Amino acid sequence: MHRFLADNRDELIARCRAKMALRRLSAAQNEELDLGLTLFLEQLIKTLKVERTSEPQRSRKVSGMPGGGKPALSEISESAALHGRQLLLHGFTADEAVHDYGDLCQAISDLAVERGESIDANEFRTLNRCLDNAIASAITEFGYQRDSAISEKAATALNEKLGYFAHELRNQLCTATLALSVIRQGDVGLNGATGHVLDAALVGLSHLIDRSLAEVRMAAGMPAQHRLLPLAGLVEEVRLSASLQAQAAGCSFAASDVDMRLAVDVDRDLLLSAIGNLLQNAFKFSHENSQISLNAYAVADRILIDVEDGCGGLPEGSAESMFLPFVQKGADRSGLGLGLSIARHGIEANGGVLSVRNLPGSGCIFTIDLPRHTADT
Predict the structure, then answer these.
(1) Can you name the CATH fold of 2-154?
(2) 326: Cβ contacts below 8 Å, ≥ 6 apart
(3) Start-end of CATH 1.10.490 domains in the chain
(4) Fold of 226-374
(5) pTM of the entire structure?
(6) What is the torsional sign of CA 205, 209, 215, 219?
């Protein structure tokens, strides 16, 4: 069989190339498969030659042990592992990584039949052993490299997120510390502009922590802790902090009166975090002297909570992308770009929907849509 393979090496590779062409692989992918198959074919021929000598067991150094044993170093396993690594770099999937070895096996079988070449049982077992070890080594290395790349990407994203979080936390804390230092000197009072700066920094710290805790809960897959809560009480809870944010941002804020009979069955912390993120976003991007409003009301069997800002309107086609993590659409790049993403996940965890409606030339309205309930009386 080794003579048959050596004599028909070019024909076998050509048949494999034809199968690659049917899969419409790129030039770089074709080149990598060519290299991998050519090297494997040489090692298969070498294995078959050694098995016809007086020391056939030496072929194990080339092709490895039969399947089922512990992994052992061999020429095929080493080159197949490198092949698996390169397949990942060239954009193959795990399934595609197996096809090239299968193509060669099929080409050998078809050509042997066409040329009337008989393959005895021992040589066929050797072929299968070589294919088995090569595929196993290639896929093992392919999986290891893929998992390593995924882990590295996740670690990089986490480090970036932690870095941004620490930076934002430090900025807010520094602002609060400086404001408090000036107030302690006795030259200004708590009710002046410096006091407002301190209030805004503390509110910012509170929102940052609440937002981060909400994200941790959702990322950990913790179940929402639903309770029936009066809608009016929730709106009143965010009214004070929103008023402080409005002063710091140079905007005005108004919240509508809420029907005392309306209620929502929600996780309180996740809903308040979502509303807080929407309001923080509104104050951050609205023009100076704009009015930000919070309106909560019922329509049929739904509770709607609107946060309207004065950002001037959204760029065309940006409505959905602004909910993606780390996306920041405005000129103000402070923060993590996570607020709207966290808000949407928090609302969805409560069985609701968060959407945005553009008001060209004016602003936009973010709407939280939740099932309607009636407050206990």
Answers:
(1) Globin-like (1.10.490)
(2) 336, 337, 338, 341
(3) 2-154
(4) Heat Shock Protein 90 (3.30.565)
(5) 0.50
(6) positive
